[in-house]
Amino acid sequence: MAAARKHKRVAASQPGFLSIKSGNDGNNSNIKLRKRVNKNKKKNWGKYSDIQDVEEFLDDVRLQERTTGGLISEKPDDVLFFVDTGEKAKAKPPAPQTTKKGKRSRPLRIDLILQPDSHIEAPKNILAFQQPNAKKERRMAEKAAKLASKGVVPRRERLLQLRRAAWASGIHLKEKPIANNNPDRSFYDLWSTEAPETADPYYLEQTKRKLIKRPEKLNEKPSALPAIEVVAPGGSYNPDLFSHQDLLREAHEVEVKKKKAEEKIARQLAVNEELATEESIFKEQVEGLIEGDDEEPEEDAEGTAVGPTATQEKKTEKQRKKEKARRILELQRKTERRVVARRQQLYQLKSIRAALKKQEERTKMRQAQRKAKQEAQKSMPRRLGKLKFEAPDLEVQLSDELASSLRSLKPEGSIIKDRFKSLQKRNLIEPRDRAKFKWGNKVKYTEKRAFKEIQ
């Protein structure tokens, strides 16, 4: 097999050998095999397709469009051919010359070369025909035309008509500003709460720059308490007996309330002192172990347990009819009782009127109580944070601590603390505690090796 292949290769290399697939010259070294390509794939369409004839046809079409303005095959015969009759066209009378007599000036050759020789019209410049906001203006014009057809005048046009009518009648909406040296001008109030309108009133009206109305809720104070509360008369350095005793009684009531609250907490947290004894512990351990404690179910004479039947007997047709008649009769009785009760209400008009009047009085009383409660809550501190407001202790001196003169009076309290508590009480700031700071790190103690050796 290998010898036959070698013999064919040697015979093909001889100069006079002509193969079946080779050319006439017998030289098949320059002949390349055609590459087999799958033309079903789109990426191979333009790469391995011969489109030279298509390109030549398209170039010819473009040349005809440039030179003649279209395809020659589509033009009529009158454009392509003419009949030669041999007669010369009559010369037109010469136009009156306004310039010098002589040779008519012709364009230069360079200008003729630069002139376009194509019969195709130049494309239109789209940007030259575009207008900014053309679509929006067209919609606005259509809307204005639609409103005008209905008889509706736009606001801008309406205001312009009003101004024209006012100007025609002699009323000038725009007043001239008053000069500063005019004695009839109004003076500026420095202490007035309202903001002055120094601008032109017509300008303020058209530009809508008038002051916004302040909500009434912003004018309300968070608390009805005064900023500085006056101390009771008993807190003076030289009070009278009755005022001082009233202040002492008030302080005593505050202390009694605190003591009651502490006692209540102590009662709630108190431990039951009744300790378990050995006998009670033994009973708890033995409970349920002794026989005879549990009651046995009742049994009938035959020894079977007595209890509810597992299945219910089916009712007969007679029983169902009796139950239905009983239900109908009960409904009739209820309707009759309802009708009789409605009739009896006619004779109870006085009592009903009295009950309604009593109910209205009760409602009014509750409304008054609710309103009084709301007024009282205005002077009470609200819960603004996680902490509740704690009222400061009353600054009161006992009878034996009263000073005989102002010079020997000992000062009590702090003005800063008093102002801070007042802000909390008036709901301006939330109650808060003093921040707890940690100063430095904890000291770490270690035992040295030498100290352990001593022990």
UniProtKB/TrEMBL annotation:
<feature type="region of interest" description="Disordered">
    <location>
        <begin position="86"/>
        <end position="108"/>
    </location>
</feature>
<keyword id="KW-0539">Nucleus</keyword>
<feature type="region of interest" description="Disordered">
    <location>
        <begin position="358"/>
        <end position="386"/>
    </location>
</feature>
<keyword id="KW-0690">Ribosome biogenesis</keyword>
<feature type="coiled-coil region">
    <location>
        <begin position="244"/>
        <end position="278"/>
    </location>
</feature>
<dbReference type="InterPro" id="IPR011687">
    <property type="entry name" value="Nop53/GLTSCR2"/>
</dbReference>
<dbReference type="GO" id="GO:0006364">
    <property type="term" value="P:rRNA processing"/>
</dbReference>
<protein>
    <recommendedName>
        <fullName>Ribosome biogenesis protein NOP53</fullName>
    </recommendedName>
</protein>
<dbReference type="GO" id="GO:0008097">
    <property type="term" value="F:5S rRNA binding"/>
</dbReference>
<feature type="compositionally biased region" description="Acidic residues">
    <location>
        <begin position="290"/>
        <end position="302"/>
    </location>
</feature>
<comment type="function">
    <text>May play a role in ribosome biogenesis.</text>
</comment>
<dbReference type="GO" id="GO:0000027">
    <property type="term" value="P:ribosomal large subunit assembly"/>
</dbReference>
<dbReference type="GO" id="GO:0005654">
    <property type="term" value="C:nucleoplasm"/>
</dbReference>
<feature type="region of interest" description="Disordered">
    <location>
        <begin position="1"/>
        <end position="31"/>
    </location>
</feature>
<feature type="compositionally biased region" description="Basic residues">
    <location>
        <begin position="1"/>
        <end position="10"/>
    </location>
</feature>
<dbReference type="Pfam" id="PF07767">
    <property type="entry name" value="Nop53"/>
</dbReference>
<comment type="similarity">
    <text>Belongs to the NOP53 family.</text>
</comment>
<dbReference type="GO" id="GO:0005730">
    <property type="term" value="C:nucleolus"/>
</dbReference>
<feature type="region of interest" description="Disordered">
    <location>
        <begin position="288"/>
        <end position="328"/>
    </location>
</feature>
<keyword id="KW-0175">Coiled coil</keyword>
